[in-house]
Amino acid sequence: MLGVMRHQWEHLLFAHWPINPEVMQAQLPPSLVADTFEGQAWLAVVPFQLTFWPRGLPTLPVFGRRFTELNLRTYVRPANQPQAAAGVYFFALDASDRLSVEMARLAYHLAYRNAKSYLTHSNDDWWAFHSQRTDSRGLPAEVQVRYRPTATPLPAEQQPLARWLTERYRLYSVNQQNQVWTAQLQHQAWELQAAEAEWTLNTLPQAHGFEIEGLQPPVLHYAQRMDVLAGLPYLL
Length: 236
Hints:
By secondary structure, the protein is mainly β. The protein has one domain: Acetoacetate decarboxylase-like, CATH 2.40.400. The protein has four helices and 13 strands. Strands 1, 2, 3, 4, 5, 6, 7, 8, 9, 10, 11, 12 and 13 form a 13-stranded mixed β-sheet that branches. A hairpin with a 5-residue loop joins strand 9 and strand 10 (180-186). The radius of gyration is 17 Å and the shape is globular. The two termini are 17 Å apart.
């Protein structure tokens, strides 16, 4: 993969809610089509810690930019290329590093926004995450949750859906002219564990047009770490 940037993602919670495909499609740009699993679209809130090495620099701690991030994501295909590989679409990426926010908005056309956030770990293996959006380029959004893994390995009955939700090797974004951009992601298969989570606050979905109150509880997975190569974006 040419022109790659190196990422390290750590201590991720994948919290997925099932969403009616028509509801999901109404929130997507017209140039993208919702991808579904057995007729169901999915919306995810994903908190984690990220270390990013700008292109051309060695992956040494001194050169990395380390921050916390919160994603609101779903899964899509380009409307004009229905046979193209399905990938991730981000409604929001709230991050605590201002420079990385502006770089990603410019280079990848991603909906990054500034936020105050932190991730802490306790002795009983709980991770506590809190993010509050501070960026005026979006409605207020706040998430406060604690989570931890509960099983190793992932139960067999959960694996087909879990793999569909997480084994995504392409991202899609849309610019102001409704043009679709894409970039490749290269990494190993996720080592997922079942997880539990306790939510104190979660206004992120509502800030982007989704009402999750009354839906079935989210499907939860935890991943300790993933090393990722992100290719440069290009216009479809």
